[in-house]
Structures are given as structure tokens and as C-alpha cells.
Hints:
Blueprint: E1 2-5, E2 12-13, E3 31-36, H1 68-80, E4 84-89, H2 95-107, E5 113-118, H3 124-135, E6 142-144, H4 148-151, H5 153-156, H6 166-181, H7 189-208, H8 212-221, H9 226-233, E7 239-243, H10 245-248, H11 250-259, E8 269-274, H12 279-287, E9 289-292, H13 293-302, E10 310-312, E11 315-316, H14 317-335, E12 342-344, H15 349-358, H16 362-385, H17 393-405, E13 412-419, E14 422-429, H18 433-440, E15 444-449, H19 455-462, E16 469-473, E17 482-487, H20 494-499, H21 503-517, E18 522-526, H22 529-542, E19 547-549, H23 555-567, E20 572-576, E21 594-598, H24 607-620, H25 622-642, E22 653-657, H26 666-669, E23 672-674, H27 677-686, E24 700-702
Parallel strand pairs: 4-15, 4-16, 5-7, 5-8, 6-7, 8-15, 17-22, 17-23, 18-20, 18-21, 19-20, 21-22
Antiparallel strand pairs: 1-2, 1-3, 9-14, 10-11, 12-13, 13-14, 16-24
Amino acid sequence: MQGQFCPGCKSLMPPGSTRCRQCGRPAESLVTSTQSCLGSEAPRRVARAEIVQDSGAPYMPYKPREGQLEMISEIGRFLDEGRHVVVESGTGTGKTIVSLASALGHSKPLGKRIVYLVRTITQTDAAMRELRAISKVKPVSGVPITGRGKSCPLFRSTGDLESVPANVLSMMCDDRKQKSISGRAGGCRYYDRVAGEIDRIEAYCRQELPSSDELDRFCEKLGACPYEAKKMLMKRVDVVVAPYIQVTDPSIRQSFMANMDRADDPSGITIIIDGAHNFPDAARDVEGFTIDNSLVDAAIDECSTYRDPTVWMDVRLEPFIRAFKQAMRAAAVDRLGLNEKEKVLEDDVVEQSLMRRFGMSRTDLESAVSAMEDLGRARTEKLIDSGDARVSDVETLAVRLGLWCSSSSERFVRTVNAGEGGEFLRASCIDPWEITSFLNSVPSAIHMSGTLAPLDQYARVLGLRDNARLRRYPSPFPRENRLVVYDRTVTTKYTTMRSDPSMQNRIERRICDLCDAVDRNIMVFFTSYGMMRTMRPYLESHIDRPRYWEESGNQRRTSDMLTRFKAGRGGVFFAVMGGSMAEGIDYPGDELCMAVIVGIPFPPPSPELNALTSLFESRYGKDRGWDYANAVPAARKINQAIGRLIRTETDRGMAVILDSRTARFARTIEASPSDDPVADAVRFFSESAVRPERIKYVPEIEASCR
Length: 706
């Protein structure tokens, strides 16, 4: 086939090229060449790690990359000193294997158990894979922990467990177990077999170090309960791999620690927090809650099933709940202005309304809420006994009302809101003191992520002890294989988009031009699903190549599309920053070659964000309040998206950020300005693959947390 010739730089391109691959000259300037085109370069192969034993690090199963032995030694020394280590580790440093090797070297001689925390259940698989590799060179054991809803074979076979609240499932399970223990009818046949099969299950775990799903299937083949087996194994293994919720939720954490025989001894564990940039938000989210109108109405409807009980003196249950609904509505009417949907409640207006209505003191109100919870709990037990797997609405409302009454502190932002379903109250946690207290009771921990800078901000926000050590380790991969540029001619800034109607179309056309210029797998990351929906019609009609879309609330369909995208070449996957596609997924080799980042993912304005900014200003100085609450999270999300590109030594990847505001933190994400990112992309991907030579290992040492 005849190619095309660029008269500017004298380069030969494949037929159909839209730009010169060397200088970026547009298609109309190219001429047909009389020479044959040799076609594009062959796809890259992804190298597999070979298991070897290295005497420099007993629990390192691979041939070490540049700097890994130094990382293991240094992190291990800090753990031995009883410190927390905050680590930002570049692509290629092997965060998972390095952290496990360091923690095992510290913990095994002391008889300590390692708790490896991940954001989602699916991420437990990566830790178990590395433990399998370690087991080839040193004896090591581990178990992945999942919730009852995922692992319970008895109730899973009877219906959709996702609709059953966790506490109801727990009560149902406990009821079945008690019947089994006492030899009564209606017990659990899977629980009955756990004790007799646990040694066999443990032997399987030690030999195979299975993923969570593999362990579940093995237990079910034996007729034993996977959930109960995992609880028993937690006392017997070296490493427990679990989602954040196992420690961020205080009630779950109590059982979690007890199952490891560490209820009163947090010094007997070493914690590893993977993806630590997500951890503070996860800790805050678990303490937040909402009381909406539909819940209150459901509780009122449920009152007819009771025999007109009282909650305090002569105050009846139903009038008490109706008075709360009136107090909530009055707060909305009084505090929300015209067209306002949300207002911060600086006082306890709802509680005061209830106390005035019934002549109560604060202590009396708390007693009434407690009595209401007792009534609801008794109702829940009756529902479960009758086979109705749900929690009493009265109990749910009472629990949240109790939390509301105790949330009037600086740790929470309390708001009254108006929505389609009526008024509702929301309490958002901005200071995760509960998890801070627990973490500081654990002497040794590793907090690691590829995107934690600035490390002192992470340590301060999480409230780590003053002796924490902060370290940044660079990637050993060739820097030339990665390019990040930002387009200084466009922006998604709200005020600019509103004043310049052409800006959206300029961004859409820039996305299309980038997709046309690079015949590789591309991911386009938006700041929100709303922005993605707005631009989708134009992109669908102007990008003529396989297109895939992340779908909010449909993880299965998104996963199927991702599989097709990774298996093919020349496709475009549209996703959202901070979503599942932008974090925790590897795209080695040709699975992903370019990332287009549309806008800066600043957190959306909200009373919670304003309160968080004020909190940071009061603690760390006015100049750091906005950065800590807005700029730092945005930069981390961008870096997470960029981090999908380079996963092996031979990967080459480019990121283009379509927003001039990137200049604010260009140094943090190592981005350069560009007036023509399309030409930059053409030139980058036309270059020969860089030979994977190592860069010099130079760890960046940050001061201890102060």
C-alpha cells in the first residue's frame, strides 16, 4: 500500500494518516508517497514476573527492581521502631509486594498479624496473588475477608441478599446458629459442618492462598459456611486481607479485632492501608447518615402494629414520631430561603422543638429515643422470626435520631435539605476522630498509594502521631516512556463555560481530534457523569471507532465493556475520574496507551466542603485550607488516572489534560503546557520504543509528621 509523505519533516506515514506522526502537520499538507508503507509497530508483549529468592529480603519473591531492596529495608526499620510510614510509591516500585515483604519481615518474628486493608472486595485478589508468590520462597498464610452478604451460602440461595440490611442478616444468621448449637430444628447446615472441616479448609488456604471467590467455592463444596470459616481462620493466618469497612466502622471493627484474638491488643497487629489516598474519605463517609421523609412516614405507618406504647412518661410513640416530622419540616421552612435546597444548622433547632413540645430535658429526649429503639428492636426480632427479612422502620429511625442528637459537634456538619421526596436531615462527618484514635493505638502501620503527595497533608488530616515517617519513592521505569501535557487553550471552569458557549464544543472537538490522531486504546476521563452525558451525543457521532462507556450504577455492564476494551485495540473508553475505572485497575501493554482528562476534578461546592476548608484553615493555616480541601484531592484523582498508563517497563503512555487550570499544580503531576496536544500525541507515539533502562534510585525524604 502507498503511504503518505510529509514535505515538512520528510517523514513517511501509513495510508489514511490524519497528521504527520513526526511534526504533527495536518492531513491536508501531506502528499501521497510512491514508497510502500511498512505498517505500524508490532504490539508489545507484557513480561511475566519470575519467582526467585533474594537473600537481601527474605519475603521478596521476585528479582528486585531498582530501589526495592532499599524500600523494604527502610520501611521495615521504621516498623521495628514502632512508627507509621506514609509512602507515595511511583509506578513500577511494586507497592503491594514491597509493603508485604516489609511487614512480614517485621511482624513474623514478633508473632504479629498483618491486616492488609483495601478499598473494595475485588482488590483483595491482588494481595492474595502476591502472598501466593511469597509462599514459593517462604512459608506464609493469609485469608481474604468478605461480608456475610457475599459469603453466606444459605441465605444467598433463598433470594437477593443485597436488599437485606447487614444487621438483619446478622440477626438471621445468629438465630440459625443458636438453633444449631442447641440442637433445635431450623439451624444452619453450613454452620454445622465448619468445625469438622476447618482443618481441611485451613490446609487448602495454606497451600493455595485462594482468592475470596475461590475460597467460597471450596467451602461450599465441603458443605461448610465460608463466612464462618474465614472468621475462624483469622486467628490462624499471618495476613488478613479485608476492605476498609472492617476497621472504619466501629461496631464492625470490634468483631473484626475479636475474631483475630486482638480485641484488647491492637499492638499485636501491623496495618497496611492500600490506596491510602481514599482512606480519610472512607472513614468520614462511614460516620455520615441521612434521615429522610420516607423513613419517617414508614415509621409512622408501622406504629399501628404496636399496642400504643409510650416512650417517655405519657408520651406515646406515634405522636412522638409525628412531632419529629413536624420539627424537621419547620426547620426546613424556617431556614431554607427561596430556591435553596440545603442549609447548615448551626444549632439544635430540631431537638429543641421536640423538647419544648413535650416538656423534656436533653436527658429525657435521649431516654425517649432509647425507648423508641427498644420498641423497634423487638419489632425487628418478630419480623425475622416470621420470615420477613427486614429491620423495623421505627428501629432504623430511632438509631439515626440518636446519632443526630449526638452529632452536634465540630466533627459533623448538620444540614436541613429539601428534595423531591420532601424534607430531610443530613449529618456529614468532617473529622474522622474515631478511626484516628484506633490507628494511633496501633504501633506500626504502612499507609501507601501512588498518589499521596503532599504526604504531610495526609498525615495531618488523618491525625497520625508525630513520629510518623514520610517517604516518596520514584518509579524505576524510563521517564521518557511517559508524557503529560495540559492544553492551555481550553477549560471546564464553570464561569468560563457559562460565559463562552463555544467552549464545550472546542473541548469536544479536541477530544475527537486526539482520538483520530492516535490509533491506540484511549481512555477519556470526565470530572462527573453529568459532564460525560452532556458531551456524549457529539462524541458518539464524531468518533468512528469502538466506543465504550462507564455506566453509573451498572457495574456488571461496565465490567463487561472494560473486558472488551482491554481485549481489543483502537477503542475509546469513556469514564469518570475517581470511579472504578480510574483506580485499582491495571492496563499493561497495549491495553491503554493514552488518557485524555477532561477538566479538573475539584470537589463540588457543598456546606460539607466549606466546613472542611474552614477546619483545615483553623488547624493548618488559612493558606492551606483551600488547597487541602480542594486542590490536593483534585491532583490525586488526576494522578490516579494518569497512573493507569505505565504498568510495565516497556509501556509507553501519554496523558492530555484539557484544562488550563492545570498550571496551578503542574509541578505536582509533572505536566507541561501545550498549545497543540494533538501534534504532541502524534510525535510521542511515532517515536521508537525506549529501551527500558533504569533511572537512578533517589528516594525523596520528607520531614516527619509534625
